[in-house]
Specification:
heterodimer, A: mainly alpha, B: alpha/beta, six-stranded parallel sheet, 18% strand
Amino acid sequence: MKRLWQIRELSTVVILVIEVIFFTWWLWPEAGRTHPFLNADNALLILKYSSIYAIAAIGAAIVIISGGIDLAPGAVMALTGVIGADLYVAHGWSLAGSMMAAIAVGLASGVVSAVLIVAARLPPFIATLGMMGIARGAAFIITEGQYFDVSSRLLGGWRPFGLPADWVAPVVMVVLALLFQVLMTAFQWGRSVFSVGGNETAALFSGIAVNRVKLSVYAIAGLTAGISGVVLVLVQGQGKADLANGYELDIIASAVVGGASLSGGRGSVIGAVLGTLIFGVLRNALPQIPGATFYDRLIVGVVVIVIVVMDQLLLKKRG
Amino acid sequence: MRRFVVFLAAVAIAACSGGSTQQASSTPAAGQRLRFAVIPKSLDIPVFNYAKIGADRKARELGNVDILWNAPTNADQLKQKEILESYITQRVDGIAISALNGDFLTDTINRAMAAGIPVVTWDSDAPKSNRIAFYGVDDLASGRIMGEQAIKLLNGKGKVAIITSVGATNLQRRLDGVKEALAKAPGIEIVETFDIKEDVVRTAEIMSTGTRRYPDLGAWLSVGGWPVFTRNATASVDPSKTKVISFDTIQPALDLLREGKVTVLLGQKYFGWGSEPVQILYDYKHGKKPTTPIIDSGVDVVTKDNVDEYEAQFKKMASGG
């Protein structure tokens, strides 16, 4: 039995709970009205919009744990979204076919970054910065500043696997989060990712195929960004080249808030997903407070710092 | 090394002489093609593509005009300034620009004018600059029209929520206009002004949470077209209780209007943004100055009653006719 404060995700969960309690109290409605924040529909809404970030954050957390960084997810999300929407709207592909093709493009972008990092020995920052430009640029070339209106072709009654459409994104998020959490904690591959991030030289000498591990983490990051891009298009109803602009920083911040260390070797997939929920709750609740909509960027910045400081203090206690 | 210096000197002389000959001839010689740079706010705003169609059509009509269409890929003020400066050093024959931040570009626009390159602003003005003219909607007036439409729809009483994106000058002026008009109807209460922070994905979530928070909301007013560019944004709104009034008329906006999801749309003169400034620049190069510096394009108020007529006209223009 672990001591409570030894659980990595603890500070993230604590903040999330504090947030929910605070907004529940602050937004308490007049008698006889439903709570504008604390209700099932709103919870689903938060999960739906957070999943856009969270799915990509799964890959980003794994990259960060391996000691790397991925700056491309925002741009890759836009590109895969645009490709999926283009194939679906303009080329008459089936929804499943066009979205699978889009995800494949995401995976391919991750593989290209990985090859640049492993074979060409580029620093991850540079390789993924380049990929960010390439992906965003390709998205603009495809749309020429226009957008593909997916929402008009996906009119009512769309129930994938018998689920209401709003459930799709959260379900995909939960399934992927659990899958990768297990892969990272219960499998040799996951332990190798932690080793490479903790001390690459030691990992190499202990017989870990460092390059293969690195290839896999960037490929996964591309894959999850691709899935995020598809989710984005379905949620927004548009494929547009400037969507998800700057999301890479929110995604990295979510992973860090969820306990990942930018120097590698530490972090968790579940933590990163919880991190996106912290931001998701803020994005959802702050606009409901009259006048607060202009403050939320500042508040988000403060929250990032508070959580990371809290995490550092707990880490000292653990150590 | 010496050869390099000689080369540099040669380039410099060539550049100076090339520049001075161009500057000297303010009216174009017969047969000379005119190169007009047209700079929208960014390449990622869909309505600007219609401005491009308008500019290209006008260039074809005039015959000897080439359009150089360029802008930052997203709304980046510094990049737009860089593009503007590059057109000055490239000595184009005229510049038509929709300023992301008019005050920030004032000096650069004045520099272009001083270098003999006429500048026309469109869509979003730089009022303190020496530009020869501005063509576009009077944002304050169009905001007032939006506010008046809301008052009319709600019979002068009810709650409204406004959607904007803080930062752009023209959106701020529209917002001011909306608030000014609504202030005249004491029965109307603005419950909140939401900022989508230049991220369109936030629109749907804000409309969904806002609709839940204010169940008796009479109308959503949006000073940009974000709620009508996708069907998902207005999905949570019940049109029998809450009306949606939005700027912009690009699909699926017109279909949403027909279906009753949206009640009023305000359309701008998207094609005119491109064609009119090119005409003004062309006239200016031929010695004809605009009679007034501010040319108000007006807005199209589109409702269920005139949507078919509007769309037919729009399609004709979009096909370049």
